[in-house]
Amino acid sequence: MNSFSVDALGAIFAGALAEVISTVSGISPGVLSSERDTDFDDIIGLMSLNGAKSGIIFISAGEADMRFLCSRMTGMPKDEVTKTDMDDALGEIVNMTAGNAKLRFSDAEYMYTLSLPFVISGKGMSIVAKKSSHVISKRLGNGEITLKLKVVY
Asked: Which residues contact 17 (CB under 8 A, 6 or more apart)?
């Protein structure tokens, strides 16, 4: 059974997120940084990854970034995008990203089933994992949008 380093897992999840964003919006984000922090942006999409190596995937975006991204995804003008539209879009992005990453794993150790996606909104949120947890933390963007990706397992 192969074992992936945290960096290799980070590359898989970041690649999955970048591919999803590119597919649904035409925006091609790259990894801007890999800082481990506990802060999230205004809107957080998350899913549980259940398997031999269980975890949680989080993708967060600020409201302005999510409004822009949702506009690109739907073709709606930014000023017509509602909170419900942004929540739905981020829920679908986290769902597609987790599914895309799942397809990239050929090793049973990292195979998982997915929960339903959830979206949480608010200002100044943070989620703290045990110090012994493995945390993948990436900030992706391209000058038009910025997203945060975290996977804790």
From this structure: 29, 59, 93, 97, 138, 140, 147, 149
